[in-house]
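Repro case for the chain-ordering regression, as requested:
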Amino acid sequence: MKYFVSAILFSLVATQAFGQDRIRLTTESGKLIGNEEILLISAKPSMPRLKARLVETSGAVRWKFVSTYERRDNEDNQAIPRNGFTRLPGDTTWRIDLNTRGFFGGDAAIAAQEGGEQRAIVFKLLGRNPADSVARKYIQSRPGAPWFAWAIAQHESRQGARVYNQFNTTQELTFEPNFGAPDGWGMFQLDSARGTPITTEEVWNWKTNVREGVEELVSIKSEARAYFNAVRRTYPSQWEAPPRFYIPPDTDTKLTYLEAAEIQLYNGASVVVLLRTPSGGSDYYRSCWQFNPAASSGNRWTFVPNRNDYVRKVVADEIEKGLDITSDR
Amino acid sequence: MRHLGRAVLATLLFAASLQNVSAEPDQTSDPAQDYQTRFQMPADLRLDVDLNGDGYPEVFLSNERRQNGRAGRVWTVYQGNPQGWRMLEKPATFRERPLQIVPATKDTPAGLLTFWPGGAGAGVVQRIGLTEDGITEETVEEIPESAVTQYFDSSSPLSIAAKPPTAFAASVPAQPAPLQVVENTPKPRIKERTVARTWIIAGIAVLLIFAVLYAAMRRK
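-- result from build under test --
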């Protein structure tokens, strides 16, 4: 309901964006924000702190901030205050600390009502990417992050030569959240296909996006291991250990069999099979390794690339091609 | 009298064994119930589509916990046949959106078309089909993610099988009405034949019992 209300309010505010010259909107550091300007979430990241004042007024003023974002089906809409308006004496500055609502963005507007008249200023609230070196360092600093986590984020968020893009670096929709169809968002392209809806924080805060991405990799680690245990349970007499290492075609990088599985599972397994559970039932397990109990000893394991050839691409395009991580934005 | 008891027992065992001969492994008359029993979780998405064009729609069932990364969900496939459905060993993996049914043509059978994002702004369109060997998955082409919307219809043929999942067994019919997307008119399952066969077996059993009883009485 609140999203509906703020969307309606935004449309009202935006269509009445006249008289903006009487609203003096600045950042906390004093930078003046004009109508239809772009205001950015910092690379740190941190939401802007704003100050708004209605000039040449003496009576009470009612203030409201609203933002909507249609690319996310208005899931990220915000309104400050949530209901009604903030009422201040005429010559008073309204301090708007957007940090109190977490991270969000989109088409924003600040409206001031005085007497029967409404004035508004509209602007875009979008985001700035961290420097590549900062992003990579933060990814690898997360608890449990596998050594290749940075390469996955680099591959997922790549836009041409630019990487670690929480926000677009493309010509179109610049500074808007990096969206990959059908529903991938941000640096790790977190996807609702993993079973949970994408949150506003994951879309607008690159650190939250990284935290969730690494957590998924940590959970994948135990899933990758579980597959081999299940194969051993199902085929106790035919079982043999998988190859210790895997080197993707046309690359020189040696991955352990578990690392290869973890990288592929992030994108999607090529092998999904029914195997015995510890309780004696059967359930699906996934991997990139196919076990053939009928094959001769020493030949029972085969690496199966998935349809995106994900493991080879991450190794060849990200790990081996390298990246000049001193590049800054 | 001892012989009589043995004869009756043998007759009953024979009748029972005739019944068991007709049962196939993994055969079910209710895929949703079978899914719940097998995996201890209800199916919350269901797709009915006749992929191999035999007139008996296949049933795809999944639960939100069945995920395979950005490839989408893991779907248990029940292949339709005259007696009901048979669960296939190999599951299918695809996203519920975008998802499109490609109708069968003179040369190619029906298929499911879906997209699997691969990072770096691209991914593959894949086609899922059903042959005598089971579920098949093949790459159609690699496309940029920006082309996905134009490539696929926005509508999805899926139906919600059970909401909320916890109330599945209690309040949802065993086979919730799915969105039928079969190209051919589904053939009727031969339930009548199964019922008739049961009665015939029961009749033979009764006749045998009477025959044994009659023979025993005449011997006395």
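Ordering looks correct now. Residues 12-22, 162-184 of chain B have pLDDT under 50 and may be disordered.
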